[in-house]
Amino acid sequence: MLIVRTPGECRRAVAELPAPVGFVPTMGALHAGHLSVIGRAREENAAVAVSIFVNPLQFAPHEDYERYPRVFDRDCTLLREHGVHLLYAPGVETMYPEGFSTTVDVGHLGEELEGARRPGHFRGVATVVAKLLGAVRPHRLYLGQKDAQQTAVLRRLVHDLDIGTEVVIARTARERDGLALSSRNVYLTPEQRAAAPALHSALEAAAHAIAGGERDPRVALEAARRKLIAPFREDYVAIVDPAAFTVLEELRRPALVLGAAYLGVTRLIDNLAVPGDDGVDPIVTPPLTAVRRGLRMP
Ligand code: PAF
Question: Could you tell me the distance, in angstroms and rounded to a whole number, from the CA of residue 150 to the centre of ligand 1?
Fold first, then answer.
């Protein structure tokens, strides 16, 4: 695996890779969730590039930028073991040198839900991903479903800025008890870890109500809240239109149930999609067929 540190080096290295190239952006501290997204990118592309960059622009001053886990050597070992061809790992000075002033604002999509709780977060995410895509120029961008609003924001970015990359959303990887894999799970105490699957159960309760034909969002949300009990402290649970990310006043399918809640100081997020009558998952991209895998993308 080649490790590159600047956009120029990265572009030159990607030009030498066989096409198509799948790209998985990360902030490191890799876990089985990242590895399953990387595994999918491996299956569907001739080469895989990964980035590791803990992006200061997407953290608010009170958030965990400083204490975000940084385990670069361990991450490199995992990436090598998983057949990654190229790692782009720029420093903060490379990404945001003195005088840097352009940011990418995705508008209302970045202002609701996570965006309302974390003002500026999606501007930070969109800006860094635009820069990473400029350096890697992949045929396909792979993102995990767990950060559902992030996937919607980045789809919008790729579309609106004519980036010409196919966006592929990979299903959330979970522990056996339902907890979504996340770099932040390492912060949980044993007691908090034992309580953590309740977030997934809460979303399942709401999803079950919607799938059963419930039309009133208050009823479905109440079913979720009954499961989201102490030590969890709810931040929000919401049911949105999966494409527009607008909160549904009257339930319909497809829908997306989202939740964010605290265990101590650790904030966990998760989501569950409820398909429409066609049974198609509104978030996760179906596996690419053999023919599509081989296509050279624009
Ligand atoms: O999901 C993440 O890890 C980050 O938000 C991303 C997409 C790598 C941008 O920093």
Answer: 8
